[in-house]
Design a protein that fits this description.
- The chain is mainly alpha-helical and 230 residues long.
- The protein has one domain.
- It contains eleven helices and no strands.
- Helix 3 (25-33) packs antiparallel against helix 9 (153-183) and helix 8 (118-148) runs antiparallel to helix 9 (153-183).
- It is globular and about 55 Å long.
- It starts with a helix and ends with a helix.
Length: 230
């Protein structure tokens, strides 16, 4: 499962570079990544029902089947570039290429060379920190709400989805904000640094505070604010 999912984000960002004009790329990343918390909301609502009706095994079978079906849909509809897709108007690839660097197929650099790049090391650290907060939130927040704050198991999902619903909205808002900052003349590098600092700093602050919560609404409020920044 991990090996299959690991290629998702590198391949998505490579496709974005070929499919999305530079002036719209932050919005595209925000829209695509907002699907992550949206899927989490669906899973949090559907999983208790699946477990009660069919047993815990079918949470894995069901989501696995959805993934397999989606794989074939993706293979059918998506091409490596917009120019290769017969469903895209001919003017669209020209517009995308006008705002992008020419596609060059070069030999992949050795891992040692990649690891010497400051940009690659920064991406690794940022991705590690983001995944740490994401999976801690996914695995710990339901348990904290159930055992720490005494909320009934059947109701945990209804409370847990609130931060993720907020994330769906603010992924798209932050993507649009980043594109506007770039259009106003701010360098792309500076925009990326600002967004990353606000994101990781906001979530880290929320996670340091939430453990002191003594009510369900305080905990959910703190994590919701954390997700707004994160």
């Amino acid at each position: 499962m991990g090996m299959g999912e690991a290629v998702t984000f590198p391949s998505i960002y490579a496709l974005l570079a070929r499919w999305v004009p530079g002036s719209e790329r932050s919005r595209a990343v925000g829209a695509i990544n907002s699907g992550i918390p949206l899927g989490t909301v669906f899973a949090l609502l559907a999983t208790p029902w699946i477990v009660q009706k069919f047993g815990w095994e079918w949470t894995f079978y069901g989501f696995g089947i959805i993934g397999i079906v989606w794989f074939f849909v993706w293979q059918k509809l998506i091409s490596s570039t917009s120019a290769d897709n017969p469903n895209i108007p001919s003017a669209e690839p020209m517009h995308i290429q006008s705002e992008s660097e020419p596609n060059k197929i070069n030999k992949a650099p050795p891992l040692k060379v990649l690891m010497q790049s400051p940009a690659i090391r920064a991406i690794i650290v940022a991705h590690f920190c983001n995944n740490w907060s994401l999976f801690l939130l996914l695995s710990w927040l339901p348990t904290f709400i159930n055992k720490g704050l005494g909320v009934d198991y059947a109701s945990v999902g209804m409370f847990t989805i609130i931060p993720f619903i907020t994330a769906v909205i603010f992924y798209n808002i932050s993507g649009s904000a980043a594109d506007r900052m770039i259009k106003r003349g701010m360098s792309i590098l500076k925009v990326r640094k600002i967004m990353q600092t606000v994101s990781l700093g906001g979530m880290a602050t929320a996670m340091m505070i939430v453990g002191y919560s003594d009510s369900i609404w305080m905990a959910i409020g703190i994590m919701t604010v954390g997700n707004i920044f994160g």
